[in-house]
Design brief:
- This protein has 2 helices and 5 strands, in the order βααββββ.
- By secondary structure, the protein is an alpha+beta fold.
- The chain has one domain: YaeB-like fold.
């Protein structure tokens, strides 16, 4: 399957990585690597996460307090957001 990030999700990933990098050198890179790892896990087995109300699935990052909500459309996985677990729940749902 192909994985695509919505433009907003790409911006959220970049913003969060910059923030972490400003707190500790190398931490932003570790955050990006974790998101890449979670993205690979989604691509390898997109149906492992249960579908939630609204037709999306989500997977949590194991270390950082972020999750990736995603939709499956045909052979494409669409990452809707790189969302912080405690900030403005559901803000991305209109995407």
């Amino acid at each position: 399957m192909t994985v695509e990030f919505l433009e907003e999700a790409v911006l959220e990933l970049a913003d969060a990585a910059l923030w972490y990098e400003s707190k500790q050198p190398g931490l932003g890179r570790r955050f990006k690597m974790e998101v890449e790892s979670v993205t690979r896990a989604i691509a390898e087995n997109p149906l492992v996460q249960r579908e939630l109300e609204g037709g999306y699935r989500r997977i949590n990052c194991p270390v950082f307090p972020y999750y990736l909500p995603y939709f499956i459309r045909g052979n494409t996985i669409i990452i809707a957001a790189v969302a912080h677990e405690r900030r403005t729940p559901g803000y991305w749902e209109h995407r």
